[in-house]
Amino acid sequence: MKKETITMDAKLMFLQMRLISQLHNYNHLETKMIQCFQRRKKIF
Fold first, then answer.
1. CA dihedral (36, 41, 42, 44) positive or negative
2. Which domain of life is it from (predicted)?
3. What would you report as the CA-atom Rg of the chain, rounded to the nearest whole angstrom?
């Protein structure tokens, strides 16, 4: 029983970590895109 709960917690933690990393990557990409657009506006 204990082993099962541990694996469930591990799976949940793994999913949370993946979600957080994906969100972080998305935010990073978004900021990069915004910077690119801002640079383009300055050039034009």
1. positive
2. Eukaryota
3. 19
Rounded to 5, what percent of the chain is helix, strand, coil? 95, 0, 5
Cα 12 from Cα 20, distance rounded (Å): 12
Whole-model pTM: value is 0.49
Tokens 């082993």 correspond to 3
- pLDDT tens by residue, 24-41: 887 788 888 778 778 776
pLDDT given for residue 20 in this prediction: 87
What tokens appear for 38 in the block? 């801002």
The Cα 1–Cα 8 span in angstroms is: 11
